[in-house]
Amino acid sequence: MKKLATTVFAVICTYMLCFSLPAYANEKCINYAKPLASSARLLAKSIEATTEALVAINKRANTHEITSFNDTVEAAQKRSEQMVRDLNEKQQHIMERAESTTDYTICKQDMQDELEELKAATKEAKDLLIELKDSIKSMLEELKGSFFGLFNKEDNKRKDAITI
């Protein structure tokens, strides 16, 4: 009877370990993947915010009849939307892979692969952000020149009116 009880107890413990180890490995994998997914999400939000700023400045420029940036803004906006879409898909893909993996060793290798892909996407996103920043800077310079040019014209009109 003791042997039977010991054997049953050992079998039950073995099954419990078999069921809990994959869950533990899956939890570790998810914890390993969360920073990668967060990086992709934050990068996408950064691109989104910068693009929104670019579009807002372009609208402001259009109200001052400066339309020279419309094509640039439209192209940058399309490129940004594609990059944001890719990064959001990357984030979902990372978490799906982490949630579906039950072996931590495989998960770690998968996440290393994802990290390498995310590094490449980050480089592209960095280049896009620099391009957006430069566009914003040049638009602001042109807007500033236009804005102060208007004031100078009005000042000249006032001076002409005073001298008459």
Topology order in helix (H) and strand (E) letters: HHH
**On the 0-100 scale, what is the average pLDDT?**
79
The value of Rg in angstroms is 29 Å
- State the end-to-end distance: 121 Å
Instruction: Tell me roughly what share of residues is in helical segments.
Output: over 70%
* Tally of strands: 0
What is the domain tally?
1
Helix count equals: 3
Structural class comes to mainly alpha
Task: Please report which band the strand proportion falls in: under 5%, 5-15%, 15-25%, 25-35%, 35-45% or over 45%.
Answer: under 5%
Main sheet? none
List unreliable stretches of 5+ residues. none
Shape by Cα distribution: rod-shaped
Keywords: Coiled coil, Signal
Coiled coil: 70-142
Signal peptide: 1-25
Please give a structural write-up.
- Residues 70-142 form a coiled coil.
- With 164 residues, this protein is an all-alpha fold.
- It has one domain.
- It is built from 3 helices and no strands.
- Helix 1 packs antiparallel against helix 2, helix 1 (2-63) packs parallel to helix 3 and helix 2 runs antiparallel to helix 3 (104-163).
- The model has no long low-confidence stretch (mean pLDDT 79).
